[in-house]
Amino acid sequence: MKQTLSAALSARGYTNLTAVQEAVTEPGLEGADLLVSAQTGSGKTVSFGLAIAPTLLGEAESFGYAGAPLALVIAPTRELALQVRHELTWLYKETGAVLASCVGGMDARAERRALERGAHIVVATPGRLCDHLRRGAIDLSQLRAVVLDEADEMLDLGFRDDLETILEASPESRQTLLFSATVSPEIARLAKRYQRDAQRISTQSGTSQHTDIDYRAVMVADHDEENAITNLLRFHEPPNAIVFANTRAAVARLVTRLTNRGFAVVSLSGELTQSERSHALQAMRDGRARICVATDVAARGIDLPNLDLVIHAELPQSEEALLHRSGRTGRAGRKGISALIVPPRARNRAERMLRAAKVTAEWEPGPSAEAVLARDEARLLADPVWAEPAAETETATLAALLAQRSPEQLALAMMRLWRGQRSAPEELESIAPRVAPGAGFGPSRWFSIPIGRISKASPKWLMPKVCEAGGITRNEIGAIRIFDDESFVEVSANVLDHFLEALGPTGEIAPGLRLTLLEGVPEEVRNAGTGRPGAGRKPGFKPKFGGKPGKSFGGKSFGEKSYGDKPHGDKPAPKGPRKPRPEGDFSERPTKPAYKGDRADKPSGDKFAKPARKGGWEPRDGAKPKAKYAPKGPAKAGKPYKGKKG
């Protein structure tokens, strides 16, 4: 490692390198193309700064004259690009490096002037860099190294064409480094096309993600989602926290709600200007705000100090988004908490997402109001202010308080002042624990029936059939699960012998419908979630015709019968040979003779230009004409109407 870089790390307080930093600085990898996958917050910026240093500096310890850029670092968002520039500035401070940035939302004219003055390292976003490239404001011919930071994010944001344009304009002899949280097939194709014999480096565990992050799945009622967020913030009281929402409208709603509850809140969403975003982040850094409510896109690349809590007000769209969100905390050896707000309707989706992300979450209810107040009491008693001696300026006031108030009054006032500075906790509705199929019903056995949703089967139709055939009541039936071609019924083990005896050897509950006793819980039921009558139906499914199964069309489906032998239902096919078809082409049959009578002498031309008839309506076939004005009511036909005389 260069002495100038080692000195910068020591001045920054580094005693040991992270796993990814050690991996990219191995002696055998100097100048090599690298494809690196490492989790967010693992020190990637410093790692690629160390990796490209030998390529940029060579044998020297510092840079010379700044002309065309020697290194190019591309990041998906302006926040991440500015953060990367900040990190590289202190890392390369002793080398005399000149850094420039080209990011969207900033003054493009100032960026062009900085490029004209010269820079050793340029940090840019893809769109703005392509603008400068098309205008001829940047020269990439001298590039020695190109770094794509968060390459997977840039592809997700639609920057593939811009990245290809930039890489095509760069020298082929460059060193190319791709850093990505995940190596998707698209990332692999990009690496194969633009890297030469890239070395694959991965510092992620194959079995777990984010070992410094404690994942919590907070189960709340549907109407308590925002109340649970309030209680989580009050219970943990982190130095800084970020709350993720999926839409700008949800961000605005949460900001209003939390502000009304007394929290110091800022927001990050796509509608903010760059100046507003910078002010919001600065408020979080200097302590004027403690909570940031943001969308995924707006929060990409931000690095907030002491961020100990991440709350997912709404579940992310994918497991990759979950990892990116959660990666805002648990950095640089600090422990963090990632809490997912999970209402009952989102339980299955949350479980699938956690499995796909290879993380384990602790399922728990939201902090109750009593738990928050108890945590307040513990924090109050543990406050270091109790151990501080009284200052000289406080002695007189202390004596006056002790003379005028009892210890109980002083303690009560202290407690009220402490709680008055904080938002009151919310009362949360308790959530019943989730049970497996059949739990709480007692010992039971499952039966299968070869009829399902496609045939319009429903619990309403199946339950009376099963009860009648088995001689039991609905109280002895547990869950009924309906699937496309098959259904499952749970029967209490206490009445199993009586039920099987009543069914008889055939086990039929209706003609052609036979119950089959199963061993254990069916796999379909286990994978579908909790078992309750009708739970297997798709959302919005509504049986027609009173919930009865649809009428089948005979023993075979139409597709299994030969052509010409497809009767409706079980009706027999018509016997005997078909009626012979007349021979010859249709053109050989006699045609209808042409009409040879007189035709109306109608004028040619526009049919709407014919003159109107005279005399009004004319009778047909000798019918008697009506009077010009017919009387109203039952008057005799043909009689002229005579009005009343004055």
Q: What does the model show?
A:
By secondary structure, the chain is of the alpha/beta class. It folds into three domains: 3-202, P-loop containing nucleotide triphosphate hydrolases (Rossmann fold, 3-Layer(aba) Sandwich); 213-373, Rossmann fold; 444-547, 2-Layer Sandwich (Alpha-Beta Plaits), CATH 3.30.70.330. The chain is 33% helix and 14% strand. The protein contains 21 helices and 20 strands. The strands form four sheets. A seven-stranded parallel β-sheet has the order 3-4-2-5-6-1-7, with helices on both faces. Strands 10-11-9-12-13-8-14 form a seven-stranded parallel β-sheet, with helices on both faces. Strands 16-17-15-20 form a four-stranded antiparallel β-sheet, with helices on one face. Helix 6 (126-134) crosses helix 8 (160-168) and helix 14 (319-326) crosses helix 15.
Key words describing this protein structure:
646 residues, alpha/beta, Rossmann fold, Alpha-Beta Plaits, 3 domains, seven-stranded parallel sheet, extended
Summarize the structure.
With 646 residues, this protein is of the alpha/beta class. Helix content is 33%, strand content 14%.
Radius of gyration, whole Å: 40 Å
> In total, how many beta strands?
20
Strand neighbour order, sheet with most strands: 3-4-2-5-6-1-7
**Full CATH superfamily name of the largest domain:** P-loop containing nucleotide triphosphate hydrolases
Q: What's the CATH first level of the largest domain? A: Alpha Beta
The CATH architecture name of the largest domain reads: 3-Layer(aba) Sandwich
Strand content: 5-15%
Query: Mean of the pLDDT scores?
Result: 81
